[in-house]
Write a structure and sequence with these properties.
This protein is α+β, with helices and mostly antiparallel strands. The chain folds into two domains: 54 residues; 207 residues, Immunoglobulin-like (Sandwich), CATH 2.60.40. The protein is 24% helix and 18% strand. The strands form three sheets. It has a four-stranded antiparallel beta sheet. A four-stranded mixed beta sheet has the order 4-10-9-6, with helices on one face. It has a two-stranded antiparallel sheet with strand order 1-2. A hairpin with a 4-residue loop joins strand 1 and strand 2. It is elongated and about 100 Å long. The mean pLDDT is 87.
Amino acid sequence: MAKDKDRKTCGELFGECKEFLWNPRTHEFLGRTASSWGLILLFYLAFYIFLAGLFILTMYIMLQTLDDYKPTYQDRLATPGMMIRPHSDSLEIVYSVEKTESWDLYVQALNKFLAPYNDSHQAETNDNCVSNRYFIQEDSGEVRNNPKRSCQFNRTMLDECSGITDRYYGYRDRQPCILIKFNRVIGLLPGINGQSPYVSCAAKKEDSDKIGELVYFPPNGTFNLMYYPYYGKKAQVNYSQPLVAVKFMNITSNADINIECKINANNIGPGSERDKFAGRVSFKLRINTN
């Protein structure tokens, strides 16, 4: 019987809940008076305003240390990376000569990539520089020498791989062209004593008898010194990254050929084995005849 007396009816529980929400005797809402709620809200308002102010102050101080044109702290790689065009995520160039659609995608990709290198566009935007010499454009103390000029890299410099004399870049004739670019690094001087870095490509050991003759454009596969140093995208808005084209003249058909291209320079060390893109790029080339 005692237990039955301790039990509360639904009406009593509802009444207690209702009184907790609003107590007309004490004028409390959810167990607190208006002044108590006001003090809590005021505290949290002040607290979050303080946090927001601290964050804004921290960001402001940090932004004062940044340079719009040059990284404040530059963790430059000892050996910059390389990449090819056209390219896919798997770094494989595979096509069939007889199936036009299989290599037309590569042709279209090269056309799009090389459009900014058209001679007419380069003549309008960039300078005709002195070869084999760094194009250094220093600032004068606090006075910025911006925007900085850039040297012309004309599409015609790629000769047979320019897409002008052969609009198929050799893909139709089983002599495909591969373009190689050196990743941009601000301030990099990739050669000393007037010696430009150059690209060399070769098949992996197991495929060395299948690669055939290679032809490079520009001659010797060089990245001329006049395109360096690079001052950054904002300082050199019209910078045209130099390219090297490799044309495979008589590669073995119907076979997977693993190729590695690497940069050679007298002041850039060999790439690390941990980074397959440091100073080199590896890809697979396969040309099917059916």
